[in-house]
Every structure is written in structure tokens, then in C-alpha cells.
Design brief:
- The structure is a homodimer of 157-residue chains.
- The first copy, chain A, is of the alpha+beta class and 157 residues long.
- Chain A has two domains: 7-47, Orthogonal Bundle (Arc Repressor Mutant, subunit A), CATH 1.10.10.10; 67-141, Lrp/AsnC effector binding domain/regulation of amino acid metabolism (RAM) domain (Alpha-Beta Plaits), CATH 3.30.70.920.
- Chain A has helices spanning 7-18, 24-31, 35-47, 80-92, 117-126, and strands spanning 51-58, 67-75, 96-103, 108-114, 134-148.
- A four-stranded antiparallel sheet of chain A has the order 3-4-2-5.
- In chain A, a hairpin with a 4-residue loop joins strand 3 (96-103) and strand 4.
- In chain A, helix 2 (24-31) packs across helix 3.
- Chain A is elongated, with a radius of gyration of 20 Å.
- The interface between A and B is large, with 69 and 69 residues.
- Strand 1 (51-58) of chain A pairs antiparallel with strand 1 of chain B, so a sheet runs across the interface.
- Chain A binds a DNA duplex (17 and 17 nucleotides) through helix 3.
Chain lengths: 157, 157
DNA sequence: CATGAAAAAGATAAGCA
DNA sequence: TGCTTATCTTTTTCATG
């Protein structure tokens, strides 16, 4: 099913996850090849799903979204239908960037990005706390962020 | 200092954060304009820092990184030099995707992406727990992920 | 913001190791 | 099969009105 990545493939992925505007020519030069094989490998990586998409990374704060909050949630029931319904509702909120089911102190960990504390409170009151079967809710307000990347470590794959 | 985004700018940002391979031509068509104003706006958005970069989004699991863990950490001291040293060390670990200083139950919340539980344990033993002034460490192992995006909600900016 | 031309990049094809 | 070289097409980029 899944085609195996060689060294060159991972090098290409490492380059593109840092900067997808790099031309095939410049990548080829860096890897000591010509453009065609690089081009074909990239197409293959896209087709096989190793590359999911290409996106512009925006500056949250510049566009007015200055607050990141992580929210740890426990539910009052754990039946399958509860969980599915909860996830569906959560995913529909545009403020929610991530929703993970976790083991440990919480059932779910959410990452939310909003304008400010006011907007967060509005979200809590008018959206989150209206969900049924909601148990405990703990907020971790981000004070500052030292690192925040989508790049994944390809050095060992 | 900061130039104000109009409706068209935010539309362009919304399009590019979903798919940065869209041509200016196709964006122009969607917005009912010609290519040059769209082109100029994009350049401006890049120059002003609204667009930080363009990246390829990879499929973590396909490249062999199947486990995401959030780690809540408290430190044993809160002096400024402690915090700075801690953040510097953490940021150098390639397994760490995010490092946030938070208020609430923890001092720091980390997001880590690794191969599997073994790799996570190795990280804990050979890297994280070697840091001095480390207090309590709580792991939230991701069981499944309902939503995980970098797209931010531009509907209200 | 429109037009249009030059430069660059993307994409494809024929042939070689 | 995977690379090279060469060619063609599309997009980007920019000057001018």
C-alpha cells in the first residue's frame, strides 16, 4: 500500500515543510539533481498523501487574534454517542483550532484562538457551556509562546 | 505602523491559508477582479507580515510520527533566568512542536510529536527529565484527533 | 486598477544509463 | 526504473497608462 520514502524524499519534504515556495530548480540544485526527478517526486509525494496541502501561515496577532487558550474538558458520560456528538459540535466552532481526545486528566484537550479575553468569555458562555454532558472545564491561558511550528522532525524517519 | 485590512485582503488571506497553490488568476476570478490588484495585495500582505510563510503540510502518521502528546509542566522556581533557560532548552528539542507559557494548572504546556510510546518514553528519560528545576510533569496522550488546523477564523476580523 | 509584455517557473516528452 | 536534456505551457512579475 504505502510506498517507502528514501533519503531524497525526506529531504524534499523537509525543505517544503519549511518553505513551499522553493522552486523545483532550487531544490534540485541543493540536492545535486536536475529538476525533472525532483518534480516527479514532489508529485508523487502529493499523490500518495505525504503532502496533504500547501498553505499560507498567517500571523495570528497581526490579524487581531491575540489569544490562544488550551481547554481541558471532562465529560459527564462516556458513551460512544456522547463522545461523537461532542466532537461534532466542537469541530463546528470556528474558534477551535484543535480538538484532541486524550488520556490523562481530561477527556478532551482543545486549542482555541480568539481576539482577546472578552471573546474567550463569550465563547465559553454562549457556546461551550451550552453543550450538554459537559463536566469539568479547565482553561490554560497562553501568556507567551516560545515555539509554535507545524514542522515535524524528519531527521529520524 | 500597521496597515488595516479591508474585506478583500481578508478574503485573500482566507483563500491562501486554505490553499497557497491557488494562482492569482483564479483568486482574481473568484473575487471578480483582475490579477494585478490581487498580486499587489498579496505582495503587500507578505511584506507587512500578515503572511509569515508558505509551507507544505505533511501527514504526520504517514511519515511515521504517530503519537502526539501534550505535556503540562510546573517548574520548581519561577525566577526569570529559570524560565528563559527552560524555554531555550525546550525549543531545541526537535520533538517539540509547541511550547506555551500558560496560566492555570501548569507553568508550561508543550506539544510533542514522535513515532510512538517508546519514542516518547525515550524523550522523557533522556531529555525532559534531565532538565534542572523541573517540577511536576503531566502527560496527555492523544488517543484521536477530531480537528487539527492552522487556519484561523477570519470571519470576524 | 487594467493591459500587456518579459522573465521565471511549472509541466511534459523523447531518449539514455 | 529513474535520470538528463530539451521543449512547451502557464504563471509570475512588472512597466505603462
Amino acid at each position: 500500500m504505502s510506498y517507502t520514502l528514501d533519503k531524497i524524499d525526506t529531504q524534499i519534504l523537509a525543505i517544503l515543510q519549511k518553505d513551499s515556495n522553493r522552486t523545483t530548480k532550487s531544490i534540485a540544485k541543493e540536492l545535486g539533481m536536475t529538476t525533472s526527478p525532483v518534480f516527479e517526486r514532489i508529485k508523487k509525494l502529493e499523490k500518495e498523501g505525504y503532502i496533504k496541502k500547501y498553505v499560507a501561515v498567517l500571523d495570528n496577532k497581526k490579524v487581531g487574534l491575540k489569544l490562544t487558550v488550551f481547554i481541558g474538558i471532562t465529560l459527564q458520560g462516556h458513551t460512544r454517542s456522547y463522545l461523537e456528538k461532542f466532537v461534532t459540535e466542537i469541530n463546528n466552532f470556528p474558534e477551535i483550532a484543535e480538538c484532541h481526545r486524550v488520556s490523562g486528566n481530561y477527556d478532551y484537550l482543545l486549542k482555541l484562538i480568539v481576539e482577546d479575553i472578552q471573546a474567550y468569555e463569550t465563547f465559553l458562555i454562549s457556546k461551550l457551556t451550552l453543550l450538554p454532558y459537559l463536566g469539568n472545564v479547565q482553561s490554560l491561558i497562553t501568556l507567551s509562546t516560545g515555539k509554535e511550528t507545524n514542522e515535524i522532525d524528519l531527521s529520524r524517519v
